[in-house]
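Q: Here's a chain of 439 amino acids. Please give me its 3D structure as tokens.
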Amino acid sequence: MSMYAIYAVGHERSRSTRGSRSLRRVLLYGLFAGTLLVAPPFYAQDQAGDWQTRVRKYSKAEDWESALRIVDNEIVRAPQDMDMRAWRARVLAWAGQLAEAEKEYLEVLKASGKDPDNWMGLANVYLREGRTVEALRALDTAVRLDPTRADLHAARARALRAAGERKPAQLEFQNALNLDPTSAEARAGLISLRPEPKHELRIGQDTDLFNFTGANHDQWTSLASQWTQHWSTTFGGSFYQRGGSDAGKFVGSVTRRQPKWGALTLGGAIGHDNAVIPKSEAFFDLDHGWKIGEANLVRGLEFVYGQHWYWYQSPRILTLTGTTIVYLPREWTLSLGATGARSAFSGTAAEWRPSGITRLAFPLAGWGAKRLSGNVLFAAGTEDFAQVDQIGRFASQTYGGGLRFQITTRQDVTGFGSYQKRTQDRRDAAFGLSYGIHF
């Protein structure tokens, strides 16, 4: 082959190689250009999801400064995006900065008032400020914009309930439930608007087991009625079996409540004593409470002062009792009570004896959740002067506790147990059970 021929063949191969390389370049450039065109939307979506996730995370941790910083940075990138501004209003409302949240929502709605979520957000701010009329106006607009959304009807029902409009609120919760039969909020809202029960009927049985005598048994029933906001009554009957003797009594009381000065209770009892219970009793209680605030360690305080007279066949007992109830976070309560008892027996001088009791009540997590609660107590001295075996010259220490289970909103069962150590090596183990129905 001549040199020209060899050159010609090499030249053709070179041209072919260059063509192949050019084709590859075109394909690579096309792929790169396509990537540039397609990537930004996906990247933006990923970024949007990312910042919203971080905002929710910081909000859940109540780190409002960090949550707002993220939202403000996004607003700087897109200052005309009203969805970003709505997010800012939402975070401000979560943070409790209600005035700023209201201002932000109003700016968003001024630019565009077609999103029912923003009207509902503004209404929630108004509700937290106690402005139910403005909240209802905002929710009316939200429902008009989308009448098929169950959550909007439920929000409007909440506002109506806050305004005291129970019937319209009930209808709105029902509308929400019709639109979404799985709505737990609508179902709970309807339950919350049922008429409040005025009466509580309770039936109970108590037993005392002694190491020095036979067992004692009590059966009792009571009816407590809340007739109005200010007036209530309690009536009950108790039946005792004590050392082969039967006894019984009837007790009644009336309570007047006044928001400014608290509650005053007056009552008395009379019975067939058989020398084991008082022949008659009289008592009064004064009760006053102070609300401090939900965010404090002590949410509230209540003080109760009472005097109780017991007239037996021979002994005469007067007790003066003061009790302080401390309301703690998460529904815990601590009760501290002290009693001074004046006992007078025929032919002897009157004698004062002290006693005290501490009780801690708390909700129980786990099984039953909020429907199950318990308490523990410790008492020193004689605590129950309504039974003859609890008065006299002895000292005692009592340990005990109880449980309460809310079966339904209108039924509950309570139980208690205690162990009392007395002087002279005497012991008393007590337990009882009661069932209550509210109607």
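Q: Can you summarize the key feature?
A: Residues 1-20, 26-46 have pLDDT under 50 and may be disordered.
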